[in-house]
Amino acid sequence: MSRETVNALCATFAGATCDDALGPGHDSWKIGGKLFASLGPDTRTVSVKTDSIETAQMLIDAGLAGRARYFHKSWVAVPLDADPAELAHRIGVSYDIIRASLTRAVRDSLSG
């Protein structure tokens, strides 16, 4: 997937917004003010949240992702040239994890 395709996919999630809070050239995708996907200016990866450190390590060990620099160990960096279905799945899982962590009031205020 290209950076543009990843950004277009992230934009389809209810309540998703993009900013460059992490610095110029970063695409930081958030829901309810919390990050669910991040693309750096010079990287060919998208950083996403997993449900646990163990899941992140399993993805790294399987060669499906790498360690997401500057993020908690439960985050991974998935290459943009990964299988498109896997990449879309990982972004969707990250979105779902972050959305579930929001307060009910915030979740209820989101469209979709």
From TrEMBL:
GO molecular function: DNA binding
Keyword DNA-binding: yes
UniProt keyword Nucleotide-binding, yes or no: no
Pfam name, any one: YjbR
Domain of life: Bacteria
Keywords from the UniProt entry: DNA-binding
Full protein name: MmcQ/YjbR family DNA-binding protein
Organism: Loktanella gaetbuli
Species lineage: Bacteria, Pseudomonadati, Pseudomonadota, Alphaproteobacteria, Rhodobacterales
